[in-house]
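Example 3.2
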Amino acid sequence: MGKDKDKESGIRFEREYNQICGKILGEERRKREISREDLARGIISKTALGQMESGRIGWTKLPGDTLMYRMGVGTDYFEVVASSEELDRWRRREDICLLLPERPEEAEEKVREYRLAYRKREPLEEQFLCKVEAILSFQDWRQEGQEPAAARFLTMARRAVACTFPQGWEQRMESLWLAPSELEAVLLEAAARAACGRVEEAWEIWEAVRCYPGAHHWRERVEVLIAPQTAILGLWLSLTGRRGAGRPVLSFGRTALEMLRRNYSHSYLLPLLTLLGRMQPRDGEEEAYLAQATEFRDAFRRLYEWFHYPGYRIWQGITVDNTREIGVVLKMLRRCEGKSRARAIYDEEGLIVTERQLEKIEKGIHKPSYENYQRLMRQYGKCGGWKTAMVETDSVEVLELRQQISTWIGLCEWEKVQIGIERFRRKVDIKYPRVRQELLFWDGLMKWKIEGAMEEALEMLLQALYCTVPSEENRDLKWWVFEREEIIIASNIASIYRRLGHMKEAEKWFDTIMFSMEQQRNRTEIEHRGYGIFMDSYDNFLGDNACFERALEKNEEAVQNCLKSLYISCLPNIFYGIAWNSYELAKEKGELHNILQSKWENAFTISIVLADFLYDSHVKSFLNAKRMKFLF
């Protein structure tokens, strides 16, 4: 009887674990009193939304994330899997983003290739392509400056809006549920109307988009995905003499910039800073603010040029740095468990898929059904699927608090961390592994950082990791698919071993984490969240071993990877690593001293400006103390 009860409890727990993203989606929708029909309109059917909320179908990346964004809820609280085709489509769209607006002919060709490769497209995919074509039309209009070009621009912008908007949207936009990517299409139509001489209509749309997130109670982590674009349109309209007097253009430009800074984002940052630099200040306070914005602009321009990154680019409506590819996940977990394909295709219910089918799934050729995917995952000791939040809860507020605590930890604001942890304890259920893991991790981190008790902290961090990671016995953990929190915890474990002088043990942990991340990246070309924390720890390990050239190589690779993401919180530390490793390497390679000196001076200067940009006073104080060493 006891065994049956335990089994029933396990099944119930697993079901909750599987359905958590859909459950949060449904809870948030009901709390906001949105009907399924209204939330799903233009993206998926209301029936499909109901199945997604109940966990009867899997989370599809593009529509799933966009539905959350429509309610102003960020999706970086979750880690999910996607099919190989979903990620292939994302990568193709990303190629287009990196080409616009600087290489329009190549972007146009990539759009044609996308349409040919994927004849069947979701409304959001089609909207993305139409927005790109509208931007291309905008560039044509700016070159030609004639009425036919303006008309083409308006036609393309309207086509983009129509992909997910109902007819007559202008009269009831405030009653619609729209995501940042959809509001971008509206901003393009506003710009097109201005190009056609319909300036007041353009300003009305701008005002509606500016007020939309506040009216719909969006969280700032989602509002920041549209605020810079809105500010850019307002500044452009004002600077081109399109009757912007009396509108809060400069004020909103500052608002958008501050959102980017608070959220560690560089999305549309350079064009925003460039336009702010052309504004005329009205008083001394504005003059000082715009001077600082100019300093940021120059630093980011140097940074982008150094790493050949297009500072002027467009961004997709979703990111995938919290997303794994199904086939890679299944293959790695099978290898970690030490199972052959022949053993992995059976469970207690019988045959799941054939051995040949599993091989194709692992290669990304086939996508398993949602039910078969769940059954396969259970074979590898992974509870439930991967559709999970950072901690088990159906409360967005708890997830936000968890995110805030992590931010305070990054800024070394320990008093706030302690208060936040106590609030968190009162709001969660410790029976869930991820909740228990999070609390053990934080307690261990505090034991290390505040009390200096590293050996006690190490024991607590190991306990935290093994809440969700299987023990090493009979397993090769380098094949484990380390999730975001697991990467961060394991990186801290490696760092403590390093600090205690156990370099072989530290090396084992660093090699394990890196191997796991590289296996995922080799197929998906995605660096997942937690990568920056790992690189910071690994850089210190390489430095202790005097591997300065290797460390410098990994630092520069880390910058390239970080720039591809919206979030750049790890950049100040990485650039300091470039400065430090260049400085130390110059002692070994005197013939390269001048080249390396230029590198460390440039990197150190950028790191100071980035710390200022990101409001990281702890790192800024540390850098100021090192100024004489690097900028004598």
